[in-house]
Amino acid sequence: ADEAGLAGLRPDGRPRTVLVAGSGPDAAAVADLLTALGSATCPVQALAPTGPSPERSRWTLPGWAGSLDLLVLISPHGTEQGLTDLVEQAYRRGCSAVAVTPAKAPLADAVGQVRGLALPFAAAGPGATALDPATDPGADTGAFWALLAPLLALADRLGLVTAPAAELHALADTLDETAARCGPAIATYSNPAKTLAAELADALPLLWSQGPIAAACARRFAAVLGTRTGRPALSAELPAALTLHGPLQAGTHALTADPDDFFRDRVEDPEGLRLRIVLLQEAPDRPGSAAPAAREQAYAHDTPLSEVAAPGGSDLHIAADILALTDFAAVYLAVASTERP
């Protein structure tokens, strides 16, 4: 990002609105997390694509978008014609454009032609190319961070979030620490990601979150579970989740036989829908938290419950800890799914 000229950027105040466009679920997740980290200092809006197919997606700027707004385009490929066309729209409206995409990609060239800023997308390794998680189960979940990190540096320059270079280096250390704690070499009994994956096997996760950052992480986890494992998941914020998912817990479809009952007739009494609550918190229970009520409702309906809570730190560190752990859990679930006969 520094090599692309970000260090020399001298913005004249904050943009009125940051508009985020990109293909795949990462665009919405990036916009969601930037909104949570920015604490409403500047509205961040994801632009929803239209079109007959994902390969032919098109994006349109809102009618009010203009010179006071910033368009952010994210793409690990940089070949989407719809995003290139969106750069032209932004130029005609006088809207500034920034892209995170591979260098020399068509999207980077288009942004350069309108005097925008192209921040490089760093692939996983030399010669590596980004895979689409919707079509390739081997897609790298780390691509999300390769897209987000340059935008965090940009947001810091614009005054939207606090993410100086030292904070970003500390963020990388947090991700490394989580990888060491949740990596494949660590046994399940001391590996929180493997434990969570085992608990979610053959279950429908209800992702209940406490706090805006945890909520963004929950929605990202639900998207990753869908794209990486083919498993559905429902996310909701507390305390609304208690009423939103309460009928689902109490419904007849949730009253299935105990899967641990050795003497259960597997033919006459097959397994049905098993719910499992995953409570994601930015920190352990604080005064006024709805977490105790969530545990009480889970206990009342005999719904198993798993908990994911960050150990503390800055908002960026909290997001990194939760996102990395849940990404590892999704990968382990995907591996377990492909290994089944």
Characterization of the model:
This protein has 341 residues and is an alpha/beta fold. The protein has helices at residues 25-38, 81-93, 106-113, 143-158, 165-182, 192-200, 212-229, 240-244, 246-250, 291-300, 315-339; strands spanning 18-22, 44-46, 70-74, 96-101, 117-120, 204-210, 234-237, 275-281, 305-309. The chain folds into two domains: 6-163, 3-Layer(aba) Sandwich (Rossmann fold), CATH 3.40.50; 187-339, Rossmann fold (3-Layer(aba) Sandwich). Strand 3 (70-74), helix 2 (81-93) and strand 4 (96-101) form a beta-alpha-beta unit. The radius of gyration is 21 Å and the shape is globular. The N and C termini lie far apart (45 Å). The model is unreliable at 133-138 (pLDDT under 50).
Chain-wise SSE layout:
Blueprint: E1 18-22, H1 25-38, E2 44-46, E3 70-74, H2 81-93, E4 96-101, H3 106-113, E5 117-120, H4 143-158, H5 165-182, H6 192-200, E6 204-210, H7 212-229, E7 234-237, H8 240-244, H9 246-250, E8 275-281, H10 291-300, E9 305-309, H11 315-339
Parallel strand pairs: 1-2, 1-3, 3-4, 4-5, 6-7, 6-8, 8-9
